[in-house]
Amino acid sequence: MDDLLQEFIAETRETLEALSGEIVAWEAAPTDRARLDAIFRFVHTVKGSCGFLDLPRLARLSHAAEDVLAAVRDGKRVPDTLLVDAVLAIVDRIGELVEAIDSGAALDDSSEELLIAALAEDARPVAQVQPAAMVRANSRSVRLNVDLLDRMMSGMSEMVLARNELARRLRDEQVDPLVEAALERLSLTVSDMRDTVTRTRMQRIDALFSALPRMVRDTAGELGKLVALSIGGADVELDREMIELMRDPLVHIIRNAVDHGIETPAERRAAGKPENGRLIVSARQSGNQILIEIADDGRGIDVDRLTAKARAQGLVTDAALAGMDSAARLDLVFHAGLSSRDTVTAISGRGVGMDVVRSNIEHIGGRIQLASRPGQGLTIVIAVPLTLSIMSTIVVGVGDQRFAIARQSVDEILRVRGDAVRIDTIGDAEVATVRGRRLPLVSLGRLLGIGDGGETTLAIVSTRDGDYALAIDHVIDTEELVVKPAAPAVMATGVYAGHTLPDSGLPMLLLDASGIAVVAGLRFLRGLAGEEDAAVAAPAPGVLALMFEDLDGQRRVLPIAAIDRVEPVSADAIRRTGGQLRLAIGGSLVPLYSAAPIGDRRDVPVLRLTDGVTEIAYAIHEPVEIVQLPTEIAPARGTGPVAGVVIIDGEQVELLDAHALFAGELRPSASDRLCWLQPDAGGWMETFLRPMLEALGYRCVMQPPPDGPADVAFVMNDAAIAPADARNVVRLRQERHDVGDPASIYRYDRPALLDALAHAVGGR
């Protein structure tokens, strides 16, 4: 608010100074319509700003003057000398109040009612009120034309390039130490001026966000919805020009979120959600980019309906759809003429908007990504570069090509030699082990198609999602470069963050560290607290899996394709409700499976598993490493969570069955289901059957329950049992083949036993 108030004071001062001559001319010729319009616009602007800034005295004065001037413009009042004097007196008073606000001085308001009364048609002449002697505060700011700022930035860029070229030439020759000292002073001055000039174009992104609350309120009211808007990161600074270019795309996205995404109160109640929808808009800086995130808790995007409409409109073929992954299908929302709405409203549904949004964002060198959670909401992340920024970079070489990479993205640079660095191959993916730390490896030459992957230098690159090793041929230099957005076609590759002109005069592209990770198919698994991030390169032949130590002490593996992420959760968020372990996270309940009790742990690592539609969780002890599953798998007998056993580094490791997890085979029955196991002569019931049933969540007893019949009783062969002791009876036999009792089940026929148990407890 302080920034807006200072801007209001500066604009009012400038307008008053520009109007000083107009006011005198209007006094001499009250019928001059042009000058009347200029004064009217001034008081109208002041009135509008006062309402927003909460300046009631200024608002009252400007409102009274506006009413009178509007009557004069409409021909209802004659601008006689008394009226002109009264208007001029109010304009003078507005100037006095503005100076008082700026200096923080108190100003008596006893005369303001007289000034307003003097505007009336039947008003009598009043004694002129002498303006208070106000000391104008010395202004420490100046308003500049944006074109002038552009020229300053362009000139500063040329100075930086000239300084770089001079430094390079002096390094190649033997020069006087005094010249070197002068160059050092020049470099310090240029660096300081560079930062100063760069900041002149920067503006808080609050200027972009300030109009959103009113827009969300009006749009939601028009649609009969309730939406709570939350804004974060408003103090992040972005180039003024970028802020202006982002206004229209952001308006499209916000209005779509309210119209398409967030449901009506009735729909939200039916879905078990609060009536008020949530819309979160935030900004943060990541390296040389500004990330703007818009997230809602609405219905998300119905990808199936979107693809069906795309197929019906002939925008994509069945063959093309078959080859698309979930992200590509979601990106169909950017197709011109395609909307996820079935009906057209005044706000959206015509299939225009999102294609324009992506086009505008890519035009300024940005990227837009979608993450939809069906029934839970949609998150849109917009990454835009700083339009003109001078950054410290490292110039690297691959083959005969040179590229720049932001210095802040590079943790270290090292040679591939000795025991400290080892390169391993898993399938077609390479992994670099640096002093015991495993990192995915990306060959810049192979990625860009300009090399054979024989690079001997690694740059350890850090991104917001994780770290990886970038293989290059050599490091050439470090330079401070002026970076600008490259052509849209170049930026659309996702590999580059802009282009620059170094002191050599040859254009050079700036690499985008995060974009390279995306294009190379790196998928980072967020590790637990205190652990390094694990990452894998995808796609690769074979099946990559996460090996972990389970809660029961066994080592198991699960294909990475089924794992969304690994994260620690509080044990307090896990409870058994409705006969099922559940994890409360992110406002949702997720089914949780575990191989053993969690015990007294305060935090539990969980695998968040998803098949693209459903999400479940699996509690573990700790992750171990990423491995590649061998082709030979020894199948497990029967059904259950284990699909088979594989050999990894000479160790037998159980492979979890993801299909069984999502099919619910691990879901234990309600703990109040009671099984009575009738003792047999050899103790088989207690030794073999009881552990299996208890692992499935049933309570087992070896004697008839005294407090009522059991849900199901297991008896061996033709043993007798009283009807009052159990509601259902499952008879087992020791022989594999039927020996005259077709109603019995072979005791090791696990599928038949589980099926009989399910029918028995299901009919309770």
- Return residue spans where pLDDT drops below 50 for at least 5 consecutive residues: 525-541
Note the main sheet.
Answer: 6 strands, mixed
Distance between the termini: 67 Å
Helix content bin: 25-40%
Q: Which oligomeric form is depicted?
A: single chain
Tell me, what's the shape?
flat
> Over the alpha carbons, how many angstroms does the gyration radius reach?
36 Å
Q: In what range is the share of β-strand residues? A: 25-35%
Structural class by sheet pairing and helices: alpha+beta
Whole-number average pLDDT? Answer: 78
Cross-sheet strand order for the largest sheet:
10-14-15-13-12-11
The tally of beta strands, per DSSP, is 37
Count of runs of 4 or more consecutive helical residues: 21
Descriptive terms for the model:
28% strand, single chain, six-stranded mixed beta sheet, 764 residues, 21 helices, alpha+beta, 35% helix
Characterization of the model:
Helices cover 35% and strands 28% of the residues. It is α+β, with helices and mostly antiparallel strands. A hairpin with a 7-residue loop joins strand 17 (496-500) and strand 18 (508-511). The radius of gyration is 36 Å and the shape is flat.
